[in-house]
Backbone:
């Protein structure tokens, strides 16, 4: 089944249109990757150096989303202020997650959260979320509150429409993989101790350095991804609005749990657009166990 037909049957009309616009734009972004690898001198609002591809993908997705006439605002990791528009859905996005992995050809991705209220808003206000992987395959994985579904881009003449790959994706019962970002020496001690225990429980360490890629394998294999609290930076690295909450929403729909170390990621009310949070996400039992270790220490 093609994406648009599936969305027509299974998603609210406005969210279906937004997902469809993102699908088309994601192919433009992907097509442009080899041509946009020069560094720009500017930095994004979080202080990371922007690459031409970051700026390009930001602009492609802002245009695609605002031209539907359905979004109230688009907030992006790459913009200090949201782009205002006329509709009712607020979109928060990380237009190119893991862009430092472009040169090495590790997977990269795009993340979108569709909120019912003005941003910054808590994950509980999400109407849906979607992420794109540009990896071995270009896939769209999304939930609009009724399970997690996946589509893959396939060449058909001159275009690349998305075909259904899987419905109602769930995290497997038996967890198999783990991937933790940052430096081990900088993690809070409870995280280091938990990480240390995982190999002995039969899990394998698999880390690619792109949140979308690292989470995507957790969804497929079961396990845990974390960008933890650091001893010197208790609020971690990943952005609540653009990264943590949309993925936590999808993960919850897939039967998992996502925590900031003290509670559900979806309950965080970010004070600012670029607020960060520690993130522990994946198989419910593992994440609850680590949350308990952290919060009772
Ligand atoms: O968006 C930030 C990001 O690129 C994530 O995709 C990834 O999980 C993280 O940074 C990797 O950080 P580090 O290189 O510190 O492990
Ligand atoms: Mn990112």
Residues:
């Amino acid at each position: 089944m093609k994406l648009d037909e599936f969305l027509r049957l299974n998603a609210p009309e406005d969210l279906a249109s937004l997902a469809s616009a993102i699908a088309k734009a994601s192919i433009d972004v992907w097509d442009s990757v080899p041509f946009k690898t020069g560094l720009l001198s500017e930095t994004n609002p979080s202080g990371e150096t922007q690459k031409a591809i970051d700026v390009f993908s930001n602009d492609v997705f802002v245009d695609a989303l605002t031209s539907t006439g359905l979004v109230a605002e688009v907030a992006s990791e790459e913009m200090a202020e949201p782009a205002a528009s006329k509709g009712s859905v607020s979109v928060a996005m990380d237009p190119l997650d893991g862009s430092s992995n472009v040169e090495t050809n590790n997977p990269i991705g795009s993340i979108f959260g569709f909120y019912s209220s003005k941003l910054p808003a808590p994950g509980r206000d999400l109407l849906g979320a979607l992420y794109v992987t540009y990896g071995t395959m270009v896939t769209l994985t999304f939930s609009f509150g009724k399970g997690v579904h996946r589509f893959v881009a396939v060449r058909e003449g001159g275009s690349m429409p998305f075909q259904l790959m899987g419905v109602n994706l769930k995290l497997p019962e038996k967890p198999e993989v783990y991937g933790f970002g940052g430096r081990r020496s900088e993690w809070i001690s409870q995280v280091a101790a938990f990480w240390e225990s995982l190999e002995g429980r039969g899990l394998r360490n698999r880390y690619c350095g792109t949140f979308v890629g690292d989470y995507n394998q957790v969804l497929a294999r079961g396990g845990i991804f974390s960008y933890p609290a650091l001893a010197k930076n208790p609020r971690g690295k990943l952005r609540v609005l653009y990264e943590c909450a949309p993925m936590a929403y999808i993960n919850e729909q897939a039967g998992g749990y996502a925590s900031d170390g003290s509670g559900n990621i979806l309950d965080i009310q970010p004070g600012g657009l670029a607020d960060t949070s520690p993130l522990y996400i994946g198989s419910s039992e593992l994440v609850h166990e680590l949350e308990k270790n952290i919060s009772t220490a």
Remarks:
- Residues 94, 97, 211, 243 surround manganese (II) ion (ligand 2) (CB under 6 Å).
